[in-house]
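Q: Structure tokens for this one, please.
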Amino acid sequence: MEEKKISRVAVARALGQSPQSISMKLQGVRPTSVSQIAIIAGLLNVSAVELLGDDSDYVLGLDERELVQLFRLLTNDQKVSFLSMLRSVVGSNSN
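A: Here is the predicted structure, written as tokens:
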């Protein structure tokens, strides 16, 4: 969280819990639900897999990671346009 400059207080607010509760979750003392993991991942702008650190089956190359990071910065309309364009490019390559 320090890398992303997100405080425990901010995470606590997003989850509706105390900062002490968040500390206990980070230490593994308290369980964290899947929905809480999704909220925390969203705050940090990472996937749940990245957040949990278990990416042994899901590893992105540098280009792929940059593509994901840039995609996350787009508006919903930009995402739709980008995906349409990308599908068109990929479709033209398969012919």
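A few notes: The mean pLDDT is 85. The chain has two domains: 8-52, 62-93.
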